[in-house]
Amino acid sequence: MATRYEIPFRLFFIGRRAVRRRVYSGGMKRIDIRDGQTVSAMGKNFTISVSDGAGKSSRARTENDTVNILLAEGIDGRQKNKHVSLLARKAISKSVMPDLAAKVDGINARHFCFGLSRLGLKDQKGRWGSYSKGTNSIYLNFRLLFAPEDVLDYVIVHELAHIKELNHSRNFWRLVENAMPDYKEKRKWLRKNGAALGPSIAPKPPQS
Ligand SMILES: [Zn+2]
Fold first, then answer.
1. What are the tens digits of pLDDT across the range 65-92?
2. Which residues pair with 47 in a beta bridge?
């Protein structure tokens, strides 16, 4: 059976007050996505298009590969950057989720055949993925969408292995190694390069 997936947040009701200040640990950079930027994730190029709105909450709608963000009334400056980054991240997560779920199902079928109930993408600070036994869910860090594919695969293997072993015991690492014999290289890559992972900012094209 295919894994169900979900976006763990509401997309359309992000009021001004709901956007909280976040503390980023692990040296991870804040996810910054801007108007006019093109964000490449899982083989798709998303263009971010922002316009001023008159509603109470900012919202996003994805059409083809354009993420259209309509800002709430009176949002500007830093507040605007926050809303744009947050809504773009959620819209992109939603768009890539079917492909990501297919990837997780494929890796699971190839190496483990464990039962998994849910998959989600989160803006996690200081961790690349998590497995919750209670809900039988795996959450992956949104930043992994910008990592080399084999690094993303490693984190998926790692979290899937936690379904069987809820620890980092020798048995756990044996499961990981059987599925991915060169997993240590991917771990090393993440340690060295992970903190800088994110959607890079391209300059906004000139207005015509
Ligand atoms: Zn772990």
1. 999 999 999 998 889 999 999 999 999 9
2. 38, 66
CATH code, domain carrying 191: 3.30.2010.10
Pairing of strands 129-132, 137-141: antiparallel
* pLDDT under 70: residue ranges of the chain: 1-26, 201-208
Distance (angstroms) between ligand 1 centre and the Cα of 159 equals: 6
Number of structural domains the chain divides into: 1
Any domain includes 165: yes
Question: Range of 64's domain?
Answer: 4-196
The pLDDT, as a whole number, for residue 202 is 54
Rounded to the nearest angstrom, the distance between the alpha carbon of 157 and the centre of ligand 1 is 10
Say which residues have a Cβ less than 8 Å from residue 49's Cβ, sequence separation at least 6: 35, 36, 66, 67, 68, 69
Alpha carbon dihedral 160, 163, 167, 168, in 10-degree steps, equals: -30
Q: 202: Cβ–Cβ under 8 A, 6 or more apart, which residues?
A: 36, 37, 38
Residues 21-36 have pLDDT tens digits of: 333 345 777 899 999 9
Let me know: does 93 contact 108? Beta carbons within 8 Å.
no
Q: How far is the CA of 116 from the centre of ligand 1 (A)?
A: 16
Rounded distance between C-alpha atoms, residue 90 and residue 140, angstroms: 13
92: how many CB neighbours lie within 10 A of its CB? 26
Whole-number Å distance, alpha carbon 166 to ligand 1 midpoint, is 8
Q: For residue 76, is it within any domain?
A: yes
